[in-house]
Amino acid sequence: MNKVSTNWGQSVAGVVIKDGKVLLARHTYGNGKGMLIIPGGYVNIGETPQDALKREFLEETNVHVEPKEILGVRFNMHDWYIVFRAEYISGKEASDHDENSEVVWVDIEDALSKDDVPELTKTLIKSAKVSSGALSLHSYEGSMKYAPYSLWCV
Questions:
Q1: pTM for this prediction
Q2: How far is CA 51 from CA 71, 86, 111, 129, 133, in A?
Q3: Residue 42 belongs to a domain
Q4: d(CA 44, CA 6)
Q5: Which of the residues in the chain have pLDDT under 70?
Q6: Structural domain includes residue 1
Q7: Which distant-in-sequence residues (6+ apart) come within 8 Å of 57 by Cβ?
Q8: Cα–Cα distances in Å, from 70 out to 36, 93, 119?
Q9: Are 56 and 25 in contact (CB under 8 A)?
Q10: How far apart are CA 18 and CA 67, in angstroms?
């Protein structure tokens, strides 16, 4: 990660579902350490959220994706986080051995019941299964420094 050009207040993530499975990465640091989460990361200065998502997926999972619709937006007065439903394009999943220790395809129903998948990831996986397209406010208790966050999801 190029820390000089990183916009620390803007981040993205994506839910990629293929053949009834969702792509998750086991995080190696911070609040998500040891947890299976949807891949993503910070937007670089001058980069669109869509391009950031493509870059982050390739860097962290070795998978090429194409962002589709927005599933959710989490924000407060200090930062924002946009989550896309993304389409798998190509690539064999692989860990970056830095930000994650493994990258795996997990059956959707298994992911929704696993203890090592956080509630935010579960909420966003569920949103990826809905086709209404309308965002609504969801209850979300963030443990982040600037909580409370507002989370808007499909």
A1: 0.85
A2: 16, 12, 27, 23, 21
A3: yes
A4: 4
A5: 1-3, 131-137, 139-150, 154
A6: no
A7: 14, 16, 39, 63, 64, 65, 86
A8: 21, 23, 19
A9: no
A10: 14
Q: Does residue 97 sit within a domain?
A: yes
Per the structure, the complete domain to which residue 95 belongs is given by: 6-153
pLDDT of residue 142: 62
Length of the chain: 154
CA distance 134 to 145: 28
SS3 content of the chain, % helix, strand, coil (to 5): 20, 40, 35
Two tokens, residue 99: 């930000």
CATH number of 50's domain: 3.90.79.10
For 63, 102, 121, the CA distances from 89, given in Å and listed in that order, are 8, 20, 21
Decide: helix, strand or coil at residue 110: helix
**Looking at the domain assignment, is residue 144 inside a domain?**
yes
